[in-house]
Amino acid sequence: MDPNSAHHATVKVGDTIIAESDTWEKVEGNIYFPPSSFKDPSILVKSDTTTRCPWKGLASYYDLNVEGQTYRDSAWYYPEPSPAASKIKDYVAFYQSGHVKVSVS
């Protein structure tokens, strides 16, 4: 666990909290949330988008479906990360935007 993870992390889409956790990982400036941190996992809709990180491996993406609004490819995760990134397996990170905000308190 990242030493910074003693703090509470939250993801909001608009005014809706979609995930929060006291256990998370920080990698390359991004907060990765464990799957158990989602209040309603059905908001995560698998996308066909993938990207490759040279050291983490193949990332898969989620669209976020919150209160009838879809935010395309707003989150990503590593279902089979490289050994160097094994601590974030299936953890979810988010692109912060005008609608999606990640905070740590």
Automatic annotation (TrEMBL):
Residues 10-96 form the DUF427 domain. This is DUF427 domain-containing protein.
